[in-house]
Amino acid sequence: MTIKSERVQKALELSNTRFKRLFGVKKETFDRMLEILQVAFDDLHKQGGKPLTKLQVEDKLLLTLQYWREYRTMEHLGYEYGVVKSAVHSAMVWVENTLIREGTFRLPGKNALIAGENKPETVLVDVTESPIERPKKCCLIRVRMPAKILLRQEEMPYDQVTIDCRSKNKTDIKC
What we know:
Layout: H1 6-12, H2 16-23, H3 27-44, H4 57-70, H5 74-81, H6 85-102, H7 110-115, E1 140-145, E2 159-164, E3 173-174
Antiparallel strand pairs: 1-2, 2-3
Helix pairs in contact: 3-6, 4-6, 5-6
């Protein structure tokens, strides 16, 4: 199978670890996915019918993997690949449905998990700690804000507002 897309050729030149880090799958998995999609694409276009899109099959797969891996917006992916957002969405839906229909990449259903056919041997839970950013307990924050009262349609000058962070009641604002 020949790869027409320069973007995919460049991605396949990466080392195995870098490819997996960027796209979330190994090169062998990518190749297997691409074979499945190419067969489905050829079957779909065998007798004509559907017009060819600007995206090649390998571009559709790479685009979908980038979306799954990075959660980039479809707008950004469309800009990068030179297509509109709806074309990105259509490509992703086609890739997902084709891979699911083929069965190789389908996850077991709920009933299979309940029956215990494929019980997981190990469960990993990520419990990485990250610090919570909170304001210091001892600070007073000075904010300059407009005090415009719209109910009476009166304009009042800007007031200096001091918010006391030490207060238990969060509604305490000193003016």
